[in-house]
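Entry for the shared binder. Reason: the reviewer on the internal report wants the predicted structure included alongside the sequence.
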Amino acid sequence: MAYQYGTGEPQMPVCPRHPDRVSYVRCQRCERPVCPECQRPASVGVRCVDCARQAQAAAPQVRTTLGGRSRSGRPVVTLTIIAVCVLVYLAQRLPDVTGMFAFTPALAEGEPWRFLTAAFLHGGTLHLALNMYALWIIGTALEPVLGRWRFTALYLLSALGGSTAVLLLANPVEQSWGTYVVGASGAVFGLFAAIFIVMRRFGRDATQILILLVINFVLGFIIANVSWQSHLGGAVVGALLAVVYAYAPRENRTALGVAATAVMAVLLLGLVVLRYAAL
């Protein structure tokens, strides 16, 4: 026990982060007192919060087979997208929200945010539930393999691909040019196509995924008010990106992934510009 000179009284060891807490347990690395709240388990004894963070930063990062950072816990991106879609659906109860953010070729040239925001809107509770269920099933399998940034890029670009396909296949003199399109289906179809590619990359039987993809695509022609164009665009974009993400050589995986993402974004933008310029 240390003594404070001049007082003759012992100085109690206290946690640096919580000076009001006495602790006789010390960090195995820096040997400072550490209270129970600040203790982090180590291979031997405990470490303080600061030493634990430093050790974690210095540790080599474990990667998945496709280069995603190996993480424990829930799929953060998937849960975030689901939460945003649910909150936006609740906001759609307010006047004009759907009309301001839904995609329609007639308005998107002057209001380009519609290309993306439409993917977070939904036309009903069942529509929302089906898309979010599919997103949860695929996202929990695909996000850990690809990693967060590539999964996010895949989802958003597939959503943009869906809106772009609607624009390219709509006729300016027909009702389709002014029809509102909402829903995450385009992005979800991109994830369907991507998980098919990834499963093939691992040599697994992807027949069920392919059948499910085809059935849902065909339903777009049978069920009224379903945008098969959005499904098609999302699936094409998702498949193209997934090919690069899944088959890029290990030594160039990050560079090729970034390049493919940027090229796809530019390509979609170019298609949109050319389509409106041709009117």
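Summary line for the report: Residues 195 and 209 are 8 Å apart (CA to CA).
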